[in-house]
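Exercise 7. Given the encoded structure of a 392-residue chain, write a plausible sequence.
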């Protein structure tokens, strides 16, 4: 009988041989994650959407309406690509997706301004794309407001009012706004730092379920346990160590790229970012072990793993905050390691939160590491009983 150390090394070598024998392992652990990583980096590389196509319907056709059009076009988000002549035609273009918004300048725009009658500029934007619609509406609103204040200012100055008094009259209440934690409105900091770990957790979970489930499907579970001298702990740790090293390396690579090359703010503790990445990998591997034990049929296990991983973003509280959810729904967010990982990541990268604030989500991540111990007796039983083997 081999010593515990030798049996553990034997399991490790056995798994490395299994990984080297099939291209699927290379695709699942290296090629596809790196391709997905490159895709998301390229997708969010610009940081913020700019030059989004917008149409203008100028029913006034005066120098003042053209000045307003130019002011709107100078914003970073809007790029006026179409000068419509008919509202119905413009809305059809909006439905076809030729542009994201139609700005309508009314008849008698110039005359009504000089008659002290308030003209209404209409902004019809496609809010099916909420981010795009919100960005365009925000920039168009700011441009029209700035243009309107400029006209008001010039009128007051012509009537002999001082510039200071005119500015106070135009804007009697000033607001001092401070954009905290993401002042650049950079969508790379907001979305890429979310989608990259989401992508990785899918591969982490699926590869863990496959590595264990394939032993039962192929009828090699008994040999696997025998190699570990009957110890399910050595069997699991020896088998999953190569995957853990691969995923932890990829998490570190992801963080280096985000912080070093894309200058994602790192205002907190580096060691907490590293610890968070390490626990993230282990938590999802532990969850994969749990799923593989509860659903021994490989196909079912992979299906459950894919559904569970897909729900991680939904319950992360990033796009729809926990505080606005029903308490029961918000509670389910705790059942996903990603929710706690994301809180630690944002706390330490953008918010520079105290370590005491970060302690709770780190504790939750550690709790996921207990899941394998709950199902280890069942896993060992499944290795010893051929009735569990050969299931799809």
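Solution.
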């Amino acid at each position: 009988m081999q010593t515990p150390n030798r049996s553990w090394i034997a399991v490790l070598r056995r798994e490395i041989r299994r990984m080297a024998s099939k291209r699927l392992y290379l695709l699942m652990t290296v090629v596809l994650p790196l391709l997905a990583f490159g895709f998301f980096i390229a997708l969010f590389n610009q940081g913020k959407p700019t030059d989004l196509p917008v149409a203008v319907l100028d029913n006034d056709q005066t120098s003042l309406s053209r000045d307003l059009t130019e002011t709107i076009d100078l914003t970073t988000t809007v790029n006026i690509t179409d000068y419509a002549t008919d509202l119905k035609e413009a809305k059809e273009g909006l439905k076809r997706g030729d542009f994201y918004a139609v700005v309508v300048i009314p008849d008698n725009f110039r005359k009504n301004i000089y008659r002290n009658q308030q003209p209404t500029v209409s902004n019809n934007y496609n809010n099916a794309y909420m981010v795009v619609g919100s960005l365009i509406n925000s920039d168009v609103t700011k441009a029209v407001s700035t243009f309107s204040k400029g006209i008001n200012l010039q009128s007051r100055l012509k009537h002999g009012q001082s510039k200071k008094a005119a500015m106070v009259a135009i804007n009697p209440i000033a607001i001092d706004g401070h954009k905290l934690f993401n002042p650049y409105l950079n969508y790379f900091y907001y979305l890429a730092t979310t989608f990259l770990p989401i992508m990785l957790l899918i591969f982490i979970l699926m590869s863990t379920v496959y590595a264990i489930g394939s032993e039962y499907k192929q009828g090699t579970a008994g040999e696997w346990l025998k190699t570990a001298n009957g110890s399910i702990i050595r069997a699991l740790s020896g088998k999953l160590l190569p995957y853990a090293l691969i995923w932890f390396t990829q998490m570190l690579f992801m963080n280096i790229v985000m912080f070093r090359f894309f200058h994602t703010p790192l205002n907190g503790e580096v060691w907490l970012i590293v610890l968070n990445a390490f626990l993230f990998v282990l938590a999802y591997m532990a969850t994969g072990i749990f799923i593989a034990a509860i659903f021994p049929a490989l196909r079912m296990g992979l299906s459950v793993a894919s559904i569970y991983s897909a729900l991680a973003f939904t319950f992360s509280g990033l796009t729809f905050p926990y505080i606005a959810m029903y308490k029961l729904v918000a509670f389910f967010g705790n059942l996903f390691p990603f929710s706690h990982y994301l809180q630690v990541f944002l706390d330490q990268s953008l918010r520079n939160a105290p370590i005491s604030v970060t302690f709770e989500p780190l504790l939750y991540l550690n709790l996921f590491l207990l899941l394998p111990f709950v199902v280890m007796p069942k896993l060992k039983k499944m290795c010893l009983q051929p009735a569990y083997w050969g299931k799809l």
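Remark. The domain at 52-170 is CATH 3.40.1710.10 (abc type-2 transporter like fold). Students should compare their own answers with the one above.
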